[in-house]
Amino acid sequence: MSVYRCPECLAQLWDAGEGLRCTECSIEYPVADGVPLLSRNRDYYYGHEVPRDVMRSILARATEVGWKRALTEHAEECGDMGFYGYSASEARAGFKFLLDHFQQGVVLDYGCGSGANTLSLARNFSHVFATDLTPERAQFTRIRACQENLSNVSVFCCGDTKHIPLPDHFVDVVIVDGVLEWVPESRPGEPSRVQIDFLKELGRVLKPNGHLFITIENRFGAGYFAGVREEHTRMRFVSLLPRGLGDLYSQWVRGKPVRTYTYSRSGYRSLLQAAGVGVVDFWGLLPSYRLMEKALALDDQQMIDEALTEVTWRKRLRNLLVRPILPWMVGSFGILAGRVRSTPYIEDLARHVAKTYSAGDEVKILRYWQNSAGVVHVHASTPRKRYMLELPLHPGAQRRLAAAVENIRQLEAIEGVSLKKLRVPRPIAWECYRGQAFLLGPEPQGRGLNDQVSGAAFEELLSRAGEYLVTLCYTTLRRAGSWSEILGQKIRDYGLPLAEQYRRRGLSGDIEKHILQIADSVTKAASLSEGFLCSIHGDFRPGNLLVSGDRASEITAVLNWGFFEMQSLPFLDLFHFMAGPGGQSSWGGRVVKLLQALRSESADTGVVRDYAKQVNVDKSLIPLFLIVYWIRQCLLRLQADVPQLAEVLEEGISKPLDSFRAV
Asked: What is the arrangement of strands in the sheet containing 530-536, beginning at the earlier edge strand?
């Protein structure tokens, strides 16, 4: 006997050799590569990302070399990161801490695509049923789950039948991520009626205290008024028109009416009430549900105010105008709907923090955002304190957070080191609650930056950064031999693992030979004067700093210590601050440009010479430290488990290599 039901009549399905058989209507459903095909059109293919033949090649390679390697090979061969970015990252599930029923709940991921959400959800719930109408997508999701040893994932194919092939009141959570608008495309009938019937069917499989989480565009999103093309029709302004007029417009432009209906906030509420799941909470997902950076509870004015805090008068004026209309004109919604109100995990976690670390004070959620490293940040406050919670979305992010906690402990253990003086927030707790790891710390004070700081603001910040790094250097300095010995050894320490990464990835070129030649040359060229080792942050850039005031007059906090090294070299953090931020494809060019500026002693590298003077290093050695920085960054980039496009490798490694060999 199978857990599945017949998608036509909801009778029990039974194992029947190589498939499943309905006990009532006698329909037989095949099982292909472990995936029950419980749809009518088993030849359906959603091919917006890659053609079917390409997807089947990826599937074949996934069984041979692993799913991630198969995606990597595809990206490297076609020179395009689009499908890899869509499929591989679990960051799209950044909404999951807004869900209820953590650890014990059963989830249906309806429209699972390539399985990114499914895998992330499986790490936090007891079981995940994942389904997609495209068989290749369902099969890829199953391969991923098996290779990740996630035995709590079941995958099946469905989506064009009246019923979902699961029993009544079977799941606690249903995820409908970018799917609701597409349902009328595969089913006959008036679009809104089709969507209501679909939502009723989701409600059937939902337990009485369960909930739906729907991510979808806002029909009246602000971008559409500015002429942004509607995502499903690729037409301007069509979602803003009355339905009948929009159909005439679409018929004229595309030769068919609009069936991918989206709605306003009140429209979604009415739709869900008609489907019997009318207890609704709206979240705004910014800039889009496809890659959420912030989530705002749209009925929580304090949360909206916190998200619209700025220091410049222009942005304050913009926020003054945006604040009243944001709940109605946000681009994407995350909609929690059910028969009773759900309790998001972050609310439960806040109560746990209050009870355990805040003497029972009520904790209020103020901000919810995620970074590109796969960590969700939740800012919260009590009447007396403000906290920041960091929640990793996947195992890689959890390892980095754990490393950051350990690195801060090591830094604090160095004699004479003061975390307060180095602007390092001390963690309060690193623990697990209901199966989810989290890092609790005091909310760091200051204004956050992004890596695109430029002009006068960057120059001011660079000066403050130089001062900070002098303090970090002197606080952690340890004598360790001559500069000749130290620099040569560090090139080998970073360079030989880099050569191993080259071989592991099957890249051409004898990089080890070049590294050893550079090490020998640097050893001969470097001074025999006494040198030293010091600690480095390892990823020192504007995005990891908080500052005071509009013009960054003071660094108030240095965050994200996951790449910290206890014994490394001066200058490396400063070089990364100057050359690291920006697009990956132009990083090598920035390093070469910095080398040229250092050798010509241009005015914009004065901060580097000032730094050298303060840490007592001869300025003639500065280009040699840049070589070490470049080799270390090449190593970190190749160690990252992401595709390495040929043009990126050429620009980031091969071209700088020629420049450094000429030094």
From this structure: 478-482, 530-536, 565-568
| pLDDT (tens digit per residue) in 61-89 | 999 999 999 998 898 888 788 888 888 88
Distance (Å, whole) CA 500 – CA 638: 10
The answer to whether the CB of 448 falls within 8 A of the CB of 531 is no
Domains and CATH numbers, the chain: 44-90+102-299+331-338 (3.40.50.150), 345-442 (3.30.200.20), 450-661 (3.90.1200.10)
pTM as predicted: 0.91
DSSP letter at 369 equals E
Run of H or E residues at 566: strand 565-568
Please give the sequence-ordered ranges of beta strands (E in DSSP) within 603-654, or none if there are none: none
Q: Which helix (H) or strand (E) holds 322?
A: helix 313-322
Q: Count other C-beta atoms under 10 Å from residue 165's C-beta.
A: 26
Kind of pairing between the strands at 106-110 and 171-177: parallel
Outline where DSSP puts E strands in 101-185.
106-110, 127-132, 153-157, 171-177
Q: What are the structure tokens assigned to 67, written together?
A: 């799913």
Dump the DSSP string for 266-316: HHHHHHHHHTT--EEEEEEEES-GGG-SEEEETT-HHHHHHHT--SSHHHH
How far apart, in Å, are the Cα atoms of 397 and each of 10, 372, 557?
A: 41, 10, 21
